[in-house]
Write a structure and sequence with these properties.
alpha+beta, Immunoglobulin-like, Nucleoside Triphosphate Pyrophosphohydrolase, five-stranded antiparallel β-sheet, 24 strands, extended, FN3_sf
Length: about 700
């Protein structure tokens, strides 16, 4: 037990000036003081500090001020200030879980004054209760001691103020008296809060789902009544017996940002029962049994023992590519010298030879032909040549109008930018057939090599899903890549996109814009497409809608603009796993050739997946602008669940077989609303792989 003198000393150090007597005055004083706690010690000029000792002293002062400010904010119930400090400082910087001189933590003060908003904010930041309170008796005794000593100190200071003549010392003692009176009231409020609290009710709901063949996911919600004390942790228990005797395991969850827990390491095909109970400063409340009352770890693949579709595919492709390279290895020595001049030109960036050599310059204008342009962007800036032009090189000035197959081939080449030299060598050897297709593709590889050499960059990024064409007969193939580091380049430089667009408008013809003009006009849309195509879905099970349309030379797939690398979709639930029991139910639906259900039936109303699918189908039909009554003719793809890693899976909703793919000239009665586009199927497949 600390001596009274030590308490007074620590209290004076931790809280200067002493707290005033009224809450309003305390808040005013706190606002005046809080400004100094916002000072970040790292903003000082470290060159002016003398040695490490001075830096360490400054750091400790900063941490001490931050910790003291947090205690003040909690005691004064200043939620805004608490949230601000938790947002700007880490738990370590705030010393969040180190007790003060009274043996209390910020969370202790918040829960014993029953300030739920502040307590929840602290809990989400990782705050803990004081380890000194090992029992209810120890907490009660500690609060009584703090209250008694504060009352004793108030009486002592009161006597001194009354008996002494007015002077400077008396004024200081009056301030101390007001601070101790305020602290005495705080301790009384904390003690009353503790005495009136009771253990919390059971969690209001506990949901149990199958996460995999060896795990279950438990999601729970706060009790409807916490009985005047904030819940600070939960306990999840599981057993093979409905009586929970014996227990197979338990886990205490004290990180309350997300109220869910995954039970790992279970045995597939075994029945498990789960329950959850809540804890506050008065102890553990009664448990709540999960809904459903038990679950069996499983996965839909166990239904027929099917192996994952992509198992070993990456390794097999790498092996196949290695074999191809081995066969063509004798080609490697034939051409390496052809690519060297560009590298040497690039290194001598400011020489006249580099600036005026016809093979090393980017194009400024387009004549009738096929061209390649590379868009590199960072924030609102784009890479341009020293003449403020987008980097463009010529592919071919005698291209065939039937470009689509060569273009789609180029999109596949974009997956192996580092192998362009090797591909050139192989295509060169194959040109003995004089194939026009091979000649065009060889010219594409030459243009790629030229672009890489001039930029000094191997990875040109992702090919935009369609070339840009103009009335002058130009076709522009666009690659897009985001640069996330502050790189500098010799032959190009960064300029704001708006500046480039403004300069181009002054020289372009609005009546007949060139492909470059069209590119600049639509540049923001293309950059937005590129960024969105790399976004990933949050974990969960989704319902996707497969709709195709065919043309003379390609098949296109309907996708949302916001996520063009994914089919049109809605989220069914956060758990991506389909259990064996759920898959069996889906197979039964498919075997009797039932239409997609639109109204619940008595024997299905208790099936969670059925209810989730109903909601998802209605939402998806609204999204793609298809009348709900037409859903009766749609089908769920029942051959497999499409797994994209471990966290995302899809069930597919298919139109009637005659409407899955709309043929050229065929009328599509249901046109999706705005916010969708159609991608060539090969482009979509590449985007999904990325």
């Amino acid at each position: 037990k600390m001596t009274q003198q030590m308490r007074d000393l620590q209290l004076a150090q931790a809280r200067k000036p002493p707290g005033p007597s009224s809450p309003n005055a305390a808040k005013r004083l706190y606002r005046n003081l809080s400004g100094k706690f916002r000072v970040n010690y790292t903003s000082f000029d470290e060159g002016s500090l003398v040695g490490r000792g001075e830096k360490e002293k400054l750091r400790k002062t900063y941490l001490f001020q931050s910790n003291a400010a947090l205690f003040e904010a909690v005691e004064l119930q200043d939620l805004d200030r608490v949230q601000e400090m938790l947002k700007h400082y880490s738990p370590e910087e705030l010393d969040l879980n180190t007790p003060n001189s009274e043996g209390l933590l910020p969370l202790d003060i918040a829960i014993m004054t029953n300030n739920a908003p502040i307590a929840k904010a602290l809990l989400q930041a990782g705050a803990k209760e004081s380890p000194h309170f090992v029992s209810l008796e120890s907490r009660s005794l500690h609060l009584s001691t703090l209250e008694r000593e504060a009352e004793q100190r108030v009486n002592e200071l009161m006597a001194q103020v009354v008996n002494e003549a007015p002077n400077a010392d008396c004024s200081e003692k009056e301030k101390q008296l007001k601070a101790w009176e305020w602290r005495f009231r705080l301790y009384k409020r904390m003690k009353a809060g503790f005495e009136h609290a009771r253990v919390p009710d059971a969690p209001s709901s506990v949901h149990l789902s199958v996460a995999s063949s060896t795990s279950l996911q438990v999601t729970f919600w706060e009790p409807l009544s916490v009985n005047s004390a904030v819940v600070t942790k939960y306990k999840v228990e599981w057993s093979c017996s409905p009586t929970f005797s014996p227990l197979l395991g338990e886990a205490v969850i004290d990180k309350l940002k997300d109220l869910h827990f995954t039970i790992q390491g279970l045995v597939s095909g075994t029945v498990y029962h789960v329950r959850v109970s809540a804890y506050n400063m008065k102890g553990w409340g009664p448990p709540q049994v999960s809904t459903p009352p038990f679950a069996i770890p499983s996965n839909w693949r166990e239904y027929d023992g099917r192996a994952p579709r992509r198992r070993g595919q990456a390794e097999a492709l790498d092996h196949l590519l290695g074999q191809v390279k081995t066969v063509h290895q004798h080609c490697i020595c034939h051409e390496p010298c052809k690519n060297q001049p560009q590298s040497r030109k690039h290194s001598v960036s400011k020489s006249l030879k580099h600036l005026f050599h016809p093979g090393s310059k980017f194009l400024k204008t387009l004549k009738r032909g096929l061209y390649l342009t590379a868009i590199f962007y960072r924030d609102d800036n784009i890479l341009v040549t020293h003449e403020d032009q987008i980097p463009v090189v010529e592919i071919d000035d005698t291209y065939s109008c039937l470009l689509m197959q060569d273009f789609l081939w180029l999109t596949k080449v974009s997956c192996m930018w580092d192998e362009i030299l090797w591909l050139r060598q192989c295509v060169t050897v194959s040109q003995s057939s004089c194939s026009c297709i091979l000649q065009t593709r060889f010219k594409m590889l030459l243009a790629i090599s030229q672009m890489q050499g001039l930029l000094g960059i191997q990875d040109l990024g992702q090919v935009f899903f369609e070339p840009i064409k103009d009335k002058q007969g130009n076709i522009l193939i666009v690659t897009l890549k985001e640069v996330k580091t502050n790189q500098t380049f010799e032959s190009v430089r960064w300029v704001p996109i708006c500046k480039l667009q403004t300069g181009r408008k002054s020289v372009s013809s609005p009546e007949e814009p060139t492909a470059l003009d069209t590119l600049l006009i639509s540049l923001q849309d293309k950059l937005a497409y590129h960024q969105r195509s790399s976004h990933a879905l949050s974990p969960g099970l989704y319902l996707g809608y497969l709709k195709l349309c065919s043309a003379v030379d390609q098949i296109r797939v309907l996708v949302p603009e916001q996520l063009p690398n994914i089919l049109c979709h809605v989220k069914i639930r956060s758990n991506p796993n389909i259990s064996r029991e759920e898959w069996e139910w889906l197979q039964k639906m498919a075997s009797v050739e039932e239409p997609v259900p639109s109204e619940p039936e008595t024997d299905r109303s208790q099936n969670p997946l059925f209810q989730e699918l109903q909601v998802a189908i209605k939402e998806l039909m609204t999204l793609v602008n298809i009348p709900l009554q037409e859903a009766k003719d749609f089908r769920l793809y029942s051959q497999e669940v499409l797994d994209f890693g471990d966290q995302v899976s899809f069930l597919l909703l298919l139109p009637p077989s005659d409407d899955v793919c709309t043929a050229p000239g065929q009328n599509n009665p249901y046109t999706p609303r705005s916010g969708f586009l159609t991608l060539p199927l090969q482009i979509f497949e590449l985007g999904e792989e990325r």
